[in-house]
Automatic annotation (TrEMBL):
CDD domains: ABC_ATPase. GO terms for molecular function: ATP binding; ATP hydrolysis activity. PROSITE patterns: ABC_TRANSPORTER_2. This is ABC transporter domain-containing protein.
Length: 299
């Protein structure tokens, strides 16, 4: 058995489109994670993080090089892989008049009573809640309980902690560390919340415009190993080590990466279209603006 839980090598992926060329999303993605690791996926919105997680969960058809627990993820998705994404909360079923106790039993909670009860305590969930009456954050807690009740070997998290208050999130992250340390389970977690996370990950993966920036993964905390300066230049490392910094070391690095991503995106847009496509775009006047100005009699 391989000691790698996730094996991705030169992965390419594009979305098919009717009457148009395929739209590339991922290109040359490489990410090999050992069992028991906790890896944070870092990248701008639209960089491809969610697509990568969905591929690893077997939710996207691809014949590229992507294996989880030694199996091709789409054609032979292995047992023990759990994916939790934000789209769950939009499902009308989980917004209906459904009692939490009944919902959890319907997805097998009674089979894992000990783990279920521990998660109910960690996430502070009331079994008598009705799903149509609770807040988005409380509904998200129920999702996490339902997804983590059964023991998992690989957990793929896509922004699902964004709705949690800081206390519940802290307790959940501590539980996930315990799962990796005691059971050798593996975590790949896409998030934009980095403060308070300095001691949490064992690895970082930077997704930049659909590709992984080397080294991938980057071992964390930094050790001074060869290749680290490519991802963390000395000037950035100095800011990370500055006791007067405004946030955590991990936040400083994430901000640097996202600033670099934006510069590269703008350069790409200028090369391909002659101008940056986002923002106010200077003196551009849209057709709709011209129309409404013509018929604006308020002045």
């Amino acid at each position: 058995m391989s000691d790698l839980a996730i094996e991705v090598n030169e992965l390419d992926f594009a979305y098919a489109a009717l009457n148009a060329p395929p739209r590339p999303v991922l290109s040359g993605v490489t990410l090999n994670l050992p069992r028991g690791s906790r890896c944070l996926l870092v990248g701008a919105n639209g960089a491809g993080k969610s697509t990568l997680l969905q591929i690893l969960a077997g939710k996207r058809l691809t014949r590229s090089n992507a294996k989880v627990l030694g199996s091709e993820v789409f054609f032979k998705t292995p047992e023990g892989v759990t994916y939790l994404g934000t789209e769950w909360a939009a499902n009308p079923v989980v917004r209906s008049d459904l009692e939490v106790a009944h919902f959890l039993d319907s997805v097998g909670g009674y089979r894992y009573k000990e783990r279920r009860d521990r998660l109910l305590d960690i996430l502070d969930v009331d079994l008598s809640w009705h799903m149509h009456e609770v807040s988005d954050g409380e509904r998200r807690r129920v999702q996490i309980v339902s997804g983590l009740m059964a023991p998992w070997d690989v957990l793929l998290l896509d922004e699902v902690t964004v709705d949690l208050d800081v206390l519940v999130r802290s307790k959940l992250l501590a539980f996930l560390v315990e799962e990796t340390q005691t059971r050798g389970a593996t975590l790949l977690y896409a998030s934009h919340i980095f403060d308070g996370m300095d001691a949490w990950p064992t690895h970082l993966c930077h997704i930049q415009l659909g590709s992984t920036a080397p080294p991938s993964p980057l071992a964390w905390p930094l050790s001074g190993a060869a290749g680290e300066d490519a991802a963390v230049p000395p000037a950035v490392r100095a800011r990370m080590d500055d006791p007067q910094r405004s946030g955590s070391r991990l936040l400083e690095l994430a901000v640097h990466w996202l600033e670099e991503d934006k510069r590269r995106r703008i350069d790409k847009e200028v090369r391909e279209g002659g101008k940056e496509r986002r923002g106010a775009n200077g003196k551009v006047t849209t057709d709709s603006e011209a129309f409404y100005r013509k018929y604006d009699y308020s002045h």
